[in-house]
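Sample intake sheet
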Amino acid sequence: MVRRALLTSVAFAPLVILIHYVLDLDETVEFILSAAALIPLAWLIGEATEHAAEHTGAGIGGFLNATFGNAPELIIALIAVNEGLTEVVRGSLTGSVIGNLLLVRGFSLLFGGRGAGDRPSSFLALGLEALTTLLLLVPSIPGWGDGDPDRDSLVEISIPVSAVLLVAYLVLTWYSLRRHAAMHIASNEEISGWSLRLSLVVLGIATALTALVAEILVGTLEVFSHEAGLSEFFVAAVIVAIVGNAAEHGGAVVVAARGKIKLAAEIALASSAQVAVFLIPAVVLLALLIDPLSLAMREIEIAALAISVVAAAALLADGRSSRLKGALLIATYAGVAIAFYAAGDRAGT
């Protein structure tokens, strides 16, 4: 019953897109409609990913979900760069890493309960996020003071940092995919459900619709934040990040609720790692074609990233999952969100 209702409500997404371009609705209404439209799309991505994982294994299945799920975030970031909203871009990218690591992973544990995870993959992802946090200190520390955080000197420092992150991403992703492919071949599991081709087609269509709907939602966030009395940084790091991660939330929770804890973990951790070592540097390098962007993060962003990595590593160290650990991860995210709210916007912006 719920499955059929969600499948039917997928049609709500193109309707929202049509309304946006045809009718002149209040932006707050569009915000609510767009948020509602993301729910069935997130479910559909989760469904398609689960079926694709039957053909590819948990590792590549999580990689597919992370790749498709992060497409809206890339589009949102580049649109914001084009509009000169660099603080929004940095905040949304930081919030996306933290959201996947704590919130998505937390909810997947909360709904999935007890189970075993893939410790090598978990620590590989956490290692990538720790590496990102350390490298972000290079352009960030010089920016902790007066001056334009996007000045030429900081942009120039950010370029080699981005290159290092991309190289790390490519090398470690290649290793991870080879490892999981070998594991999948060795398992020789019986395959049922959707074909791989159908799964990938559905993933592509659902992701494209998610990107369009997310763009509409972000376009109406300014009015929403003004009416709610929230800082742009908080809106970017929490609301925009949660919106961009809607696919990962839905996919991880759906998969975890069905008892596939390992795949749910792959979705959350792979997505977080992809944002850290792929999406962040990709945005910086692509921004050179639009409007140069630096990786000069604020002190609160670096601290939040470090706390998130340490908390996740401590709770996931034994490779076992539980609802208590999920609740603790969510509580940690709530604390980070409160800190972001208290921090407000960067001085001078």
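Comment: The CA atoms of residues 76 and 104 lie 19 Å apart. Residues 2-343 form a domain with the A middle domain of Talin 1 fold (CATH 1.20.1420.30).
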